[in-house]
Automatic annotation (TrEMBL), chain A:
It is a multi-pass membrane protein. SUPFAM superfamilies: MetI-like. GO terms for cellular component: plasma membrane. GO terms for biological process: transmembrane transport. Belongs to the binding-protein-dependent transport system permease family. Residues 117-306 form the ABC transmembrane type-1 domain. It is found in: Cell membrane. PANTHER family: OLIGOPEPTIDE TRANSPORT SYSTEM PERMEASE PROTEIN APPC, PEPTIDE ABC TRANSPORTER PERMEASE PROTEIN. It holds the Pfam family BPD_transp_1. This is Peptide/nickel transport system permease protein. Residues 1-34 are annotated as: Disordered. It comes from Allosediminivita pacifica.
Automatic annotation (TrEMBL), chain B:
One of its GO terms (biological process) is peptide transport. It comes from Allosediminivita pacifica. It is a peripheral membrane protein. This is Peptide/nickel transport system ATP-binding protein. GO terms for cellular component: plasma membrane.
């Protein structure tokens, strides 16, 4: 074989190996192209029970929140002092007009739960997203660049962990003044530590892998490396933390509301309803149990959805 | 009567895709004091066989029917407690592959050495300590008494493997199983460890099972050999006879795939295809699909066992039917630098790493590369040789522009690498890395990975980039159907081809290959080396090849540069350096390289 022999396919015919592999290769090439990864992911999604249940729950809750005015049988703010503390329809003394009973002020509990879905979903999704934005940005930056940036971020983390979160939140709300958006922002700003810890460690690990070096050698800027090479590998852990933080954020809101610095009455939120119902929990358990069940459904749904998304989007179809 | 007899051992792994028959009907026997080498590529079932013997199989593995007898006691009939108490340690000892992870990092060496014998009531604490010190001394650890109080991280890889050997010998086992004991170590250390094992075996009259993928290691150190492929023993017998007169096409092909340090460089006999994963019990020859001499009957039934107990194989071919070699070894014309144009030049390059423990800790300096002067001529393959820690990978990172030298400068095509725009640099030089399992983003499909450098440069649209990716896959002989696969669905050799395709997609003029084949099986290494040489010749690439393997150097390199402790200690034309090394270190490297000199004349006589 001479040095000028340019075509790799024209290998020496005296080599049975090369000739055979060339034949095998052409046979392979003739096969129909397999389904694209997106199609495969969709196929997997249809067969994934947890994902289906989770997305159904979340979808129902979101629809409820959007169409609350159409679904609610009563005005959630309308008080009726003659119909205070009515039990749900299936208990003794229940009333078909108020299917899930009424609260201390005689407001329809079902309507308040339906409207409460709006606030609770907003707070859960909003706060978990803000936390994600802060935590992932800091974590990836610290993990990727290391050095003094890493030291600074680690210091920030230590400081955040050392502060009593609830107290800080109370102080902030007290200074800024309570509103739904303020609560969302403050809960979000106080819940980024998990994202940071996980993404920082993962970024440090991924950064040392050869495919990052290959991307750098191909001329990627740090931003391109982070977006294209590192973030896709963090998605599954971020999803898991997000679904976990969703529940935490809603509970944090309920603590704030219980202390009077969260959602202000008469706005209904599940957290606030639990807080309000707590006083008479032993005599009228439904006041706590019903919003509790809603919260439970939301968190379970989010977790199932998150786990399902992780399974479906991972390259080999499982974790 | 043999000390160990394994009859029809089978191991099945329950995987999501179905039961995988990792080991099928393996029968082996070993006499007292005898050594047996089990050779095979990854996936051949060699480690599973040993783990089954030690009852260390992974949880989802099932051991099939078959009997393991040790000194005529059926081990299968013993309960776990009896087996652990009476056999593991005093009768069977094992050494694992990874010295970095097989010692517990939180316990002192002394405790780990003595624990088993003291717990088992075999020795008193003081007797165990005395024996441990004695053994550490015997395995060549300096100041053994002081070492007893040290932790594993204070020892080097080679020393840890010595400690592992000492630990296995604490209970004076009758049979020592060594699973790739030297694979993770440097070449010079490898040779020392193998020598030590051999000496100890003779001294203590132990039996030994040496599991390895490296035929050269086996050729030097064992009495008998069993060659495994696809979960079966395909050929077995006296080491000298199997290795010098191989009668199974697989053994022959495997021997042909090993790069050699003697004679003229020739094209390696790559075995086409990959090692199969057997989900169904095969009703035919396991090697049939890759065999150059396959016949129709190979597909129809399991081939018969031929030969006598001193040397047998599972093949339909009679000795006379085997072709001497598949083809006359084709001499490869090694690349010559036609022009004296310098493609890459390192001038007085030094790299010092400074680190601190925490923000206010004391500074700590490591001189990874120390005043290196090196030039690579256009169109040549320059091999950079050295052991781990010699600074060769740090140098490569600087040549790629991924790291900047502390002092000195690197010129690429006459321009300083540090002054170049990243895109300009990327168009001139591209890397290929050692570990094909970490060099591809697991979250991206092959099409995305290969076309990514084009996307970064903003070349063409999605469609033309996709087409270019297909072309590159054809160039490195990857089938189109893998276009949308993720790296996890590929074998190591296939992944390395993807890495090569990605490196070549922007038509760079130079490649920096950092140990491109050291993580691959021999037959796959041959495929990749042949591919690299062919690409280099066809595309006129300049190539800097970093390796520790002198045989690979001999195989492909035009010139060699040797590094030790961050310094360049020798450089020159490959033939000269290999035949007439100037420094002691290069001599040591050459002497330590496991070599396998095949007696070609003998092989030819046999075939006639």
């Amino acid at each position: 074989m001479t040095m000028t022999d340019a075509d790799p396919a024209q290998t020496d015919p005296t080599q049975p190996h090369a000739a055979r592999s060339a034949v095998a290769a052409t046979d392979d090439r003739r096969e129909a192209l397999p389904p694209t990864p997106r199609r495969l992911a969709l196929t997997r999604a249809y067969g994934h029970g947890g994902l289906l249940i989770g997305s159904t729950i979340i979808l129902l809750l979101i629809l409820t929140a959007i169409f609350a005015p159409l679904l609610a049988p009563h005005d959630p703010f309308a008080q009726s002092l003659s119909a205070r503390m009515l039990p749900p329809v299936w208990s003794e003394g229940g009333n078909a007009e108020y299917l899930l009973g009424t609260d201390q002020n005689g407001r329809d509990y079902l309507s308040r739960l339906i409207y409460g879905a709006r606030i609770s979903l907003m707070i859960g999704l909003g706060a978990a997203s803000i936390g994600m934005l802060i935590g992932v940005t800091l974590g990836v930056t610290a993990g990727y660049f290391g050095g003094w940036i890493d030291h600074a971020v680690s210091f920030l983390l230590t400081a955040q962990l050392a502060l009593p979160g609830l107290l800080l939140a109370m102080a902030l709300v007290f200074i800024i003044g309570p509103s739904v958006w303020v609560v969302i922002c403050i809960v979000g700003v106080l819940h980024w530590t998990y994202y940071l810890v996980v993404t920082r460690a993962a970024t440090q690990r991924i950064r040392s892998l050869d495919f990052v070096a290959a991307a750098q050698a191909a001329g990627s800027t740090p931003g391109q490396v982070i977006r294209h090479e590192i973030l896709p590998n963090l998605v599954s852990s971020i999803i898991v933390i997000f679904t976990f933080e969703l529940g935490i954020a809603i509970l944090a809101e309920s603590s704030l509301s219980f202390l009077g610095v969260g959602i202000q009455p008469p706005m209904p939120s599940w957290g606030l309803m639990i807080a309000e119902g707590k006083q008479s929990m032993f005599y009228r358990p439904w006041l706590v149990v019903l919003p509790g069940l809603c919260l439970f459904a939301l968190v379970i749904g989010a977790n199932l959805l998150g786990d399902g998304l992780r399974d479906v989007t991972s390259p080999d179809g499982r974790n | 009567m043999p000390m160990l007899e394994i009859d029809n051992l089978s191991v099945t792994l329950d995987l999501p895709a179905g039961p995988l028959h990792a080991v099928r009907d393996v029968s082996l026997s070993l006499d007292r004091g005898e050594s047996l080498g089990i050779v095979g590529e990854s996936g051949s079932g060699k480690s599973m066989s040993a783990l089954a013997l030690m009852r260390l199989l992974p949880r989802r593995a099932r051991m099939g029917a078959g009997a393991i007898r040790f000194d005529d006691v059926d081990l299968g009939g013993l309960d776990d407690a009896t087996f652990a108490g009476d056999y593991l340690g005093p009768k069977l000892g094992m050494i694992f592959q990874e010295p970095m992870t097989s010692l517990n990092p939180v316990y002192r060496i002394g405790r780990q050495l003595t624990e088993a014998s003291v717990r088992g009531g075999k020795l008193t604490a003081s007797a165990a300590r005395r024996r441990a010190i004695e053994l550490l001394d015997r395995v060549g650890i300096p100041e053994p008494e002081a070492r007893m109080a040290q932790y594993p991280h204070q020892l080097s890889g080679g020393q840890r493997q010595r400690v592992m050997i000492a630990m296995a010998l604490m209970m004076e086992p009758d049979l020592l199983i060594a699973d790739e004991p030297t694979t993770a170590l440097d070449v010079t250390v490898q040779a020392q460890i193998m020598e030590l094992l051999e000496d100890l075996r003779r001294e203590m009259g132990m039996g030994m099972i040496l599991i390895t993928h490296d035929l050269a290691v086996v050729a030097r150190n064992v009495d008998r050999v069993a060659v495994m492929y696809g979960g079966e023993v395909v050929e077995a017998g006296d080491a000298a006879r199997v290795l010098h007169m191989p009668r199974h096409p697989y053994t022959r092909a495997l021997l042909g795939a090993i790069p050699r340090t003697d004679g003229p460089a020739r094209k390696l006999e790559a075995i086409p295809g990959t090692v199969p994963s057997l989900y169904a019990r095969p009703e035919a020859c396991v090697f049939g699909p890759r065999c150059p001499q396959a016949r129709p009957e190979c597909q129809e039934s399991v081939p018969p066992v031929r030969g006598d107990s001193n040397h047998w194989r599972r093949c339909v071919l009679a000795a006379a039917e085997l072709r001497a070699t598949q083809h006359a070894p084709e001499a490869i014309e090694r690349a010559r630098a036609d022009v004296e144009e310098i493609a890459l030049e390192a001038k007085g390059v030094t790299r010092v790493f400074r680190s601190r423990k925490g923000p206010f800790g004391p500074p700590h300096e490591i001189r990874a590369v120390d005043d290196v002067n090196l030039d690579v001529k256009r169109g040549e393959i320059l091999a950079l040789v050295g052991e781990s820690g010699s600074g060769k990978s740090t140098l490569a990172r600087m040549l790629l522009g991924l790291d900047a030298p502390t002092t000195g400068e690197i010129l690429l095509d006459g321009t300083r690498v540090s002054d170049m725009a990243p895109m300009d640099r990327a168009g001139r030089v591209q890397p290929i890395f050692q570990d094909p399992y970490s060099s591809l983003n697991p979250r991206r499909t092959l099409a995305e990975i290969i076309a990514r450098p084009l996307a970064l440069r903003g070349e063409g649209d999605a469609r033309s980039r996709r087409r270019k990716a297909c072309e590159m896959m054809e160039l490195v002989r990857l089938p189109d159907r893998l276009l949308h696969s993720y790296p996890s669905q590929l074998s190591g050799g296939q992944r390395q081809r993807v890495a090569i395709a990605r490196a070549l997609v922007t038509d760079p003029r130079m490649l920096v290959c950092d140990e491109p084949t050291s993580a691959l099986d021999v037959s796959v290494q041959a495929q990749i080396l042949n591919l690299l040489v062919q690409l280099q010749r066809d595309l006129g690439l300049t190539c800097l090849l970093i390796t520790h393997d002198m045989a690979v150097v001999h195989q492909v390199a035009t010139r060699v540069a040797v590094m030790l402790n961050g310094r360049l200690i020798e450089a020159g034309p490959a033939d000269e350096v290999l035949t007439n090394p100037a420094t002691d270190y290069t001599k040591r490297l050459l002497a330590a390289a496991p070599r396998f000199e095949r007696d070609d004349a003998q092989t030819r006589d046999l075939a006639v």
